[in-house]
Structure formats: structure tokens, C-alpha cells
Amino acid sequence: MTQHPPEPFRIKMTEPIHLIGPEEREKALQKAGYNVFGIDAKNIFIDLLTDSGTGAMSQHQWAAMMAGDESYAGARSYNRLSEVMQDIFGFKHFVPTHQGRAAENILCAVALQDGQYIPSNMHFDTTEGNIRARGGRPANLVIDEAFNISSQHPFKGNMDLEKLENFIAEVGTENIPFGMITITNNAGGGQPVSMENLRAVSEIYHRHGIPFFIDACRFAENSYFIKQREDGYADKSTLEIARETFSLADGATMSAKKDAIVNIGGFLAVNNDKLFQKICNELILREGFITYGGLAGRDLDAIAVGLREGLDEAYLAYRLGQTAYLGNAIKQAGVPIIEPVGGHAVYIDAGKLLPHIPQADFPGQALAVELYREGGIRGVELGSVAFAYPDPDTGEMVYPELDLVRLAIPRRTYTQSHMDYVAEILGRIAKRGGELKGYRITYEPKLMRHFTAQFEPIA
Ligand SMILES: *Cc1c(COP(=O)(O)O)cnc(C)c1O
User: Fold this and answer.
1) Which of 71, 87, 134, 144 lies in the 20 to 30 Å Cα band around 9?
2) Residue 208: CATH number of its domain
3) Number of separate domains in the chain
4) 148 and 64 in one domain?
5) How far is the CA of 139 from the centre of ligand 1 (A)?
6) What are the angstrom distances between the C-alpha of 378 and each of 151, 157, 426, 430?
């Protein structure tokens, strides 16, 4: 196959997109308080805000939706999903949820006490938010290579095992109700975690009696990276690799909007019977009955089909190839990115591209705004706006290592010429990067501020 395998599908339904004029774009930015989350989708040309729930479903998924069983309890749709869950993940129990964050909320509600710690390689923003909302303290223990944007380490999502051992010794096992790892590491560039590392992390958690949960959102992409990059896995199928991955854990949270290629859905899976009982009670209170969670029966059918399609190796070769193609094109345009390119997104190092804007003035925000202004493209800031927080002990702002802008690629949605356009726009911005100015926050909520914060340009 070629380096960037062509789409293993053809298009039989299209959705028009439109680039509005520069004055209209400026107006849209002002109206949104310079937060691209606030811009109407009709005013976006290429939307790379997220790969979450934005992909195109296949004809098989749409057909499966027509067979959805909307019974309140024990629907056939649930049974069909259950069978796929058993085959891929193999956990004893699972419940559907309306999204990944609902699974996180329920897990934190039943297993986390005020003041406890949850280690991971890196928590995603919703996971971090859910832990903090219950008074917990998330800890990110990824290997140092994750922060070195030019390191070519093949598994930059790996947990630093020494940091993990030291962390457990420092805070005490009694203060760690469960440990996590995110595959692939979304907050750190969509970088994969090796099987060797997953095995070692599982061993450490279990030696200390700590239950191990995988944030499984991109488990299929992670499985394909393992197949491509890890010794001993080239001849294993992605399904076999996924099974081995989950055999190491006690449970998983998942947003089906990622590697299950659906527009809505998620699940929480566990082995422990007692924990499952508590989860069911919480689920019924917050989401719905245990055989549908917050979803319709047809959604469960779409997930069941999508989970298998997400593991298809021709699809994964195209998927990871397209992301690498965009990454290379952006790099060629003179814009620094995290390398090697991750699975679902290209992460631009806005701090490095705009060194004259200090972290407190949000270089990532400046670049995200400029991408829209120049080309009608929507990305997302994942830097000081999303991740800086006041230290709970001192109140001082703690800034993240990197100020990134993420361009996430929806699954099976955009073509190579869309990617070429994005790289060209970024090249234009890079040429006049020195002119870009920082931003000041005029409104912010307490948690997860990047979704709704308002800004003004610094004169
Ligand atoms: C998207 C995502 C979540 C949250 O899932 P939602 O469906 O958006 O609530 C959690 N963890 C990771 C790694 C994610 O990418």
C-alpha cells in the first residue's frame, strides 16, 4: 500500500460547506467573544474542533439503526452491543452512557472520595474536570519525552513507571481508589501507549491493590500503532491486540464518539460485581435504565457496528495515514508540530510558533482565532486556557508544559484536498506570526473554562 492509503470507501451522500467572507468571519469572532466554540457551525468552512461524534457513519451503521429496538428494558439492541462488547473488551459488566464524560462522572461518583488522587499518563479535560468536581486530584505521570516535541519516541503516551511508583509511595495506596491510563493520550498529542507499558502499569497498580481503568476512547488507533511499531505485534490482528490490552485492566471508560465512529454514546465497563451494583444505581439516577444508559436503542446498534468498523485495518491504515499526511504538510509549511504525528489529530506548538506571546496571554488562543480569521478553519486551544489552574494549596496559577492548538480530524469526513487547504492557510499565518497578539479573559467559569470563556484581544 502507498504511504497515505486512499479512503477505503467512496462517497454517496454529501453535505455542502461554505467559506464566508473575511468581514463576516471577523464579525463571527467578535460575536463569539473570540472563543471558536461560540461560532455557529454554518460559519465554519473546515471544522477540526474535534473528532468526537463528528465522523461519518457507514451504510451498515445507518442500516443497523433502522433495526433499533426501543424497548425500555432488555432491548435486542442492548444484546447486540453486549455481544460485541464481550468479544472486544471482555469485561464482565458494562453500562451504556450518553458520552464518555458520563461514564467518568459515574465512576468518580461511586469510587472517588474527597481529597483522593487519580494517577494516569495524562487525564483528558473531561476526566480531569470530573475528578476535580468530586474534590479529587488528578496526577499526570507521562514519560518526559511527551513534552519534547521533536523526540521520535514511538510511544510518547507511555506512563513513566518510576514516577508512578514514587507517586504511589508518596500519597499512599489508601488515597488512590483507582488508577488510569488514556489510550491514545489525547491531552498529550494523541500519542500511543505500548503493550509493554500497559503490562507494566497493570502490574504496578495490581501489586499495590489499585484497580486499573483504561480511558479507551481511541483503543483501536492505539492497537494499530502497537501493530505497526511494537516488536512481536506485526502479525497480530488489531482485535487480538485490543483484547490483550483490556485483559490487563479492571474496567474502562469510553466515548463511543471516537473509535466507535458514532455521533453520540459511550460506556463504562467493570469486572467487579459490587462496583457494578453501585454503578447501576448511579446510572439509573443520572442516565437511564441499565440496558440503554442515556441512549436510544438505535444508538446502541450503531455503536455495535461501529466498534467493529473502527478496528478494521484498512480503515485504520487510511485513518492514521491521513493524520500523518496533514502533519507532514503543516510541518513543510514551517509550523512546529508534535512529532511523531498522533492518531486522531495534529497538535501545533503555538508556544513555539508565537514565542513573543507569554503563556498568560494565551498563544494557543491567538493561533486558534487566527486560523478562523484567515481560512474559516476551526481548531481548539489545548494549552493555558484549557489546562492552567490555580494550585489548591497556594492559589498560584500552574501552567501546562505546552501551549497547543489541536486540529482533530473527523473520521471518514474530509478529503486530502481539505487537508492541503488547512496546511496552506497555516503556512500563510506562520509567515506573519510575529504580528499576532495575545488575548485576555473577560469571563470564565470555574471548571473547563475553555468551552465558554470570553476573550478580548490585547492591544
Ligand atoms: C472525548 C474524550 C473523553 C470524553 O468523552 P465525551 O464523549 O466527549 O464526553 C474522555 N477521554 C478522552 C481521552 C477523550 O478523547
Assistant:
1) 87
2) 3.40.640.10
3) 2
4) yes
5) 17
6) 27, 25, 12, 17
